[in-house]
Amino acid sequence: MNRKLMSLTLAIALAVTMLMGVSAVAEAKPFEGVTITFWGGQAELNPGTLAVIEAAEEALGLHVETEINPGGSEGDNLLKTRIASNDLPDLMVYNSGSKLYDLNPSRCFLDIKDWDLVSRVDDAFLSSVTIDGAVYGLPQSSTQAGAIIYYKPDYEELGLEVPHTWAEFVDNCAKLKEAGKTPIELTAGDTWTTQVLFLGDYYNINAEYPTFAEEYTEGKAKYADIPVATRSWTKYEDLVDYLNADKSAATVQDGNFAIGTGEATHWFILTQQLPLITAEADDQSQIGVFGVPGDDPDNHGLTVWEPMSFYVWKDSQNIDAVKAFLDFYFSEEMLNLYFETYGANGPSCIKGYTLPETVCDAVRVDMQQYFDAGKTCPALEYVSPIKGTACEQLTTAVAMGQMSGADAAKDYDEDCKKSAVQLGYNWE
Amino acid sequence: MEGKKRRNQIIGDIVGLILTAVIFLIPFYFMFVQSIKSKKEANRLSIAWPTELHFENYLEVIKHGNYQLVTAFKNSAILTVFTVLGLIVTGAMAGYVIQRRKGKLMTTIQSVIMLGLMIPASILPTIRMLQSMGIYKTMFSMVMIEIALQTPFTIMLYRGFMSSIPVDLEEAASIDGCNRWQIFQKVIFPLLKPIQATIIILVGVQTFNDFTNPLYFLPGAANTTVQLTLYNYKGQLGNNYNLLFADIIIITVPMLILFLFFNKRIVAGMVAGAVKG
To answer: Do residues A50 and A75 share a domain?
Structure first.
């Protein structure tokens, strides 16, 4: 008896599932049942990306399986191992620019120059993912800048103006210090952050010495010899008196908090931190951005970094599905969804796309004006493959006042020489 | 005089207990407090009690990424259980034979095994080998790798312990009519209990906490192990400390239970083999 009951239940269950299966087929979506694997770091798998993935699963019927990459040097090792064992995810996110070069992308990533999407991306980004005529990447996020992020209420309180020259900037810092504020946040606990002033100052070098990148790559232009380039290093010296008390131990996390709540007024940092800083602030309009000032008040610009890129595995079984997913990702509606959910680091690299109203003023107003005026310049790492490996140690030493800017410039030239020789350049 | 000495001892005990509590309990308290704060508050990493409680952090961690943590726990549990089982069975037998038999062959085998303690595994050749065998990215291969990596250490522990078991027992068993297999199974194996506990703990914790090996040898979202889930909350730009600590606490609990359960036996097992070589 019992057995009969059991088989009856099973039979009914079977029938029901089959019917459900039939009804699912009736409203078939183009990629029903396809699973694509997606590999990214914690920063890329942010709420914005996850929201778009969810919408894509809904609309296209495919399933996106996300896998987390630990990032940093561990992540790089892992990626290189997986490239060597020819086992990559269908879609992944990694740096554009010189780090892409290191991977020798032709052996692992799909050349997507024939895709329609590529024509919608601006040229500055494309040049950072184009190697030997092949295009490999699409922008995962928006551009960002190495700039000064500041706490606006302090400026309003003391009636300060956004500085357009370095002298004005130092002047502002002095006034802030007099008023009992901490003018500058330095987060040497994460040493990479100390480089931002040096790297972000490249706009000013380029403005005064347009052939610098070229001559530097050939080994002719030296930081210690060209005054405007030496300035990138000596600027740190002017700031030693204005730093926060916990400068040597503070981390990026502390910096987000210090600027968001007005504990400190300025922070030299990449604008990728903006969504995290505004999350700490009472109101997003309190946070502003300006480029590292030079000496010419009429030419105050922004040094720009390109975003991380999406790359497609060459041997993926699901290239069609990945392409459909990316087409979907770059639809206006989804870009809006992404930027509304997560926020933006800077203006988008998609031609003709404007960021939604909800993106913070720091990006939509403060940064956009540099882009509109054409006063932007790509960071040196996108124009020259050479970067000294001890850069962050040197900038930290100068920023902490342990070394003079001129000495650091000399040391850095030596350091660059080692990198250049390793890359096969003949510097003499 | 006697009373004074006794009093000093009690004071010493109390100071010791307080120190232990400070050293071991405060980190736990710290993690727990962060795990029930809001994101903003937790990012400040203060030890203060939260202004409002957010126990839903735990729920969020469990639900994150389509219940990724549940999958991860399943994977880690399978990996740990089978690694420990495999090592206990093979390690005990190998340790027995190596300790009881003398001769050139055994010395050679033993030194080869001990080499494994010093020589690290190379990643890419292993992956290539797994690929050619068609078992790359399977739980089976991961268990085998963990067993292979921890075999030398296990055998070393077993061998040391084995020397404290008198040979007389085996002779007696032999006279009573046991064959060799029965001697091992019925006499020796049951006597190994203290060292089994030590190995279950050491190997279990090591395998459960292993981060790098699963990262390289067992990639793929479906194969995530618990340690990898921590990276969902930790990144270059900023961390979600509240969720990170909630995740850490959830992950720590199973190992803590295992430890409390076997705690007493560990020291016994470690010391037992220490005197005789």
So the answer is: yes
For residues A332-370, one letter each, b for 16 or more C-beta atoms within 10 angstroms of the residue's C-beta and e for the rest, the string is: eebbbbbbbbbbbbbbbbbeebebeeebbbbbbebbbeb
Is B216 within 8 Å of A65 when comparing Cβ atoms? no
Is residue A18 one of the residues assigned to a domain?
no
Interchain CB distance below 8 Å, A85 and B124: yes
pLDDT tier at A16 (50, 70, 90 boundaries)? low
Question: Which of A45, A67, A72 has its CB closest to that of B220?
Answer: A67
CA distance A294 to A201: 8
Domain that holds residue A290: 144-305+366-422
Instruction: Tell me which chain B residues have a C-beta less than 8 angstroms from the C-beta of A276.
Output: 237-238
Same domain? For A110 and A216 the reply is no
Classify residue A80: in a domain, yes or no: yes
Task: Render pLDDT for B16-45 as a digit per residue (tens, 0 to 9).
Answer: 999 988 888 888 899 999 999 888 788 777
Same domain, A221 and A330: no
- Domain check: are A176 and A191 in the same one? yes
Summarised one tens digit per residue, pLDDT across range B40-77 is 788 777 888 888 888 888 998 888 877 888 999 999 99
Cβ distance A37 to B131 less than 8 Å, yes or no, reads no
Nearest-angstrom CA–CA distance, A311 and A89: 10
A236 and A89: one domain? Answer: no
Give the domain CATH number at B83: 1.10.3720.10
Nearest-by-Cβ selection for A43 from B39, B222, B235: B235
Structural domain total, chain B: 1
Distance CA(A44)–CA(B229), nearest Å, equals 15
Domain count, chain A: 2
Provide the H-helix boundaries in A330-404.
332-342, 361, 368-372, 380-383, 391-399
Q: Are residues A157 and A124 in the same domain?
A: no
Q: In this structure, is residue B65 part of a structural domain? A: yes
Return the structure tokens found at B77.
Answer: 């549990």
- Residue of chain B nearest A35, judged by CA positions: B221
Decide if B149 is inside a domain. Answer: yes
Q: Is the dihedral of CA B140, B142, B144, B146 positive or negative?
A: negative
Min CA distance, A11 vs chain B (Å)?
Answer: 30
Contact A264, A282 (CB under 8 A): no
Contact of B12 with chain A, judged by CB distance below 8 Å, is answered with: no
Interface of B with A in 48-67 (CB under 8 A): 65
Chain A residues near residue B228 by CB distance under 8 angstroms: 68, 70
- ipTM here: 0.73
Q: Given B127, B221, B236, which is nearest A43 (Cβ)?
A: B236
Tokens of A296: 């010419």
State how far the Cα of A204 lies from the Cα of A231, in Å rounded to an integer. 10
- Using an 8 Å CB-CB cutoff, list residues of chain A that contact chain B: 37, 41-43, 45, 65-72, 74, 78, 81-82, 84-85, 87, 252-253, 256-257, 272-273, 276, 279-280
